[in-house]
Every structure is written in structure tokens, then in C-alpha cells.
Design goal:
By secondary structure, the protein is mostly helical. The protein has one domain (11-261, 269-309): Rhopdopsin 7-helix transmembrane proteins, CATH 1.20.1070.10. It has helices at 3-6, 24-51, 58-86, 94-127, 132-135, 138-164, 181-185, 193-227, 231-260, 268-292, 295-313; strands at residues 11-14, 91-93, 173-174.
Length: 314
């Protein structure tokens, strides 16, 4: 008998931030604005990369996929968050919840590994600049990205299966603003040992392997920059890595904060706020981080604005 047949619960209720009714409209407007900026910013990054032949390099290839993933996982989470802020019925079907979880988890894990791949890309660019275009060939770049998407899908499928096989026969109220793993797990009336172990193993492996790749890459980058004698080389190395280092610090810092939060009812508000920051704010911050500190992106945007202005003048 499968998990769906054993469950009497077919619909979940998402509490979101319903305990703060006076904040529903301000939060809706704030999240809608952030989501709009996220879509415009990330679509803008993708458009700039496609328009400017100068940035058709491995670094921008990975950045293009990062922007695509930001749009995807923000679009999985944010529309439902906006809906439950303005609609009385905050319900979602069991299958709908599993679908949202699957795609959200896939895109987050994929982005995690794309950021690790970008750290390796920065390592090659700084430590072996003369061999950069050979080492980071288009075929290797495509394989690294394809591997990230594939692994994200496999991990997400495993975790979604571990949830779908559980029985839900008691409360159907999810104390969260989305279909978050631990929040769903807490409602199950069956043995959750397999689900907990699957989550622990996958989460630990993914986070550890990512941090090892990132830290190793940046240790080599630091040693290489220390050996540089010219200030120009140091400045170029710093500007090459600063945006990525900022992005991974925010991304992994938020994940590690979730790991450190104690599993108790009193900590649910912090979990909800941290999850909203992770799924709503970070996708908006990434295009700002990469565009504000990136000379090529700023130059392309400036040329587009000038050409648009000239065409209107004519």
C-alpha cells in the first residue's frame, strides 16, 4: 500500500505569518516588490550575457545558470507565499505540496553545486590564467552544469519520495509559509526514521562537499594572490572573486543558520523568517551583487541605455 492510500489527509493548511494579521498587507507588498526585482534583475543578467559577446566566457555561462536558478526557485516559493498573505483559505493539496517541494529542493541543491562549480572556475582563472580557456572548455562547463542539475534532481526525488511514503492522519496545519521538509515531517503519524536519515545524509553530504570545494578553491586562490608582486594582479584577482565570495557567504550562511536552529516550537518563527530570506531575498540579492561589482555587466547596460536613448532621439 502506498503512502497516499495510508493517508487520510489530502489537503494541508499553510499558516504562514497569519499570527500577525496587521502585517499581511505590508508583507504582501514587500514580497511582491522583491519578487518583481528578482525577475527583472535576473532576466536582465541573462539578457546582458546573451547580448554582449565579450562576456561569452565560462564565468558568465555559470552566472547565467545561477540567474536562471534564482528565478526558478523564487518562482516555486514566492507566488504561494503571496497567495496565503491575501487569501483566507491557505490550503494546498498533498500532491501540490509534494510538487512544490520537489522543484524547490531541486533548484536549491542545483544552485548550491553551481556556486561550488563557480568557485572552481575562479580557482582556475586566478591560479592558471594562461590555461583558463583550455581547462574550462565549453564541453567541461556543460558537463559540470548538467551534473549539478542531475544531482539536484536525484536528491530532490529521494527526499520527495521519503515524504510521499509517510502517513498523515492527524493535524493538517503546516506551521510554515511553504512546503518545508521538517514542517511536513512533523505532521506525520508514521515512522519518520527513514525520512530523517535520508534528509540528514543528503544535507550533510551536499553541504560538506560544497564547503570543501569552495574552501579548497579559495585557499589556493589566497596562496596564489600572496605570491603576486603587482598591485594590478592583486586587484584583478580580488575583483574576480569578490562577488562570488559575497554570494556564497550569504547562501551558505543562511543554510548553516537553519542547521543551527534548535528543533522546537519556539524556534519556528526564526525558521520561517530564515526560509523566507533564503527563498525570497537571496534570488534578488544575487543579480545586485554580480552587477554592481561587475565592470562588463555595467558597461553593457550603459551601452544599451545610450543606444536606446539615441534611437528615441532619432
Amino acid at each position: 500500500m502506498d503512502g497516499e492510500n495510508k493517508s487520510s489527509v489530502t489537503t494541508f493548511i499553510l499558516l504562514g505569518f497569519s499570527e500577525y494579521p496587521q502585517l499581511q498587507v505590508p508583507l504582501f507588498l514587500a514580497f511582491l516588490t522583491i519578487y518583481t526585482v528578482t525577475l527583472v534583475g535576473n532576466l536582465g543578467i541573462i539578457a546582458v550575457i546573451r547580448i554582449n559577446p565579450k562576456v561569452h566566457t565560462p564565468m558568465y555561462f555559470f552566472l547565467c545558470h545561477l540567474s536562471f536558478l534564482d528565478i526558478c526557485y523564487s518562482s516555486v516559493f514566492t507566488p504561494k507565499l503571496l497567495e496565503i498573505l491575501v487569501v483566507e483559505a491557505r490550503s494546498i493539496t498533498f500532491r501540490g505540496c509534494m510538487v512544490l517541494f520537489f522543484f524547490g529542493c531541486t533548484f536549491v541543491i542545483t544552485e548550491m553545486f553551481v556556486l561550488a562549480v563557480m568557485a572552481y572556475d575562479r580557482f582556475v582563472a586566478v591560479c592558471n590564467p594562461l590555461l583558463y580557456t583550455v581547462a574550462m572548455s565549453p564541453k567541461l562547463c556543460a558537463l559540470l552544469v548538467a551534473g549539478s542539475y542531475t544531482w539536484g534532481g536525484i536528491c530532490s526525488l529521494t527526499l520527495t519520495y521519503s515524504l510521499a511514503e509517510l502517513s498523515f492522519c492527524g493535524s493538517n496545519i503546516i506551521n510554515h509559509s511553504g512546503c518545508e521538509y521538517s514542517a511536513i515531517l512533523s505532521l506525520s503519524c508514521s515512522d519518520t526514521h527513514f525520512s530523517q536519515m535520508a534528509c540528514l545524509i543528503i544535507s550533510t553530504f551536499n553541504e560538506t562537499s560544497n564547503l570543501v570545494i569552495i574552501l579548497t578553491s579559495y585557499i589556493f586562490i589566497v596562496f596564489t594572490t600572496i605570491k603576486m608582486t603587482s598591485s594590478g594582479g592583486l586587484h584583478k584577482a580580488f575583483s574576480t572573486c569578490a562577488s562570488h565570495l559575497t554570494a556564497i557567504t550569504i547562501f551558505h550562511g543562511t543554510i548553516l543558520l537553519l542547521y543551527c536552529v534548535p528543533n522546537s516550537r519556539s524556534s519556528w518563527l526564526l525558521v520561517k523568517v530564515d526560509t523566507v530570506f533564503f527563498t525570497v531575498m537571496i534570488p534578488m540579492l544575487n543579480p545586485l551583487i554580480y552587477s554592481l561589482r561587475n565592470k562588463d555587466v555595467k558597461e553593457t547596460v550603459r551601452k544599451l541605455i545610450i543606444s536606446k536613448h539615441l534611437s528615441h532621439s532619432i
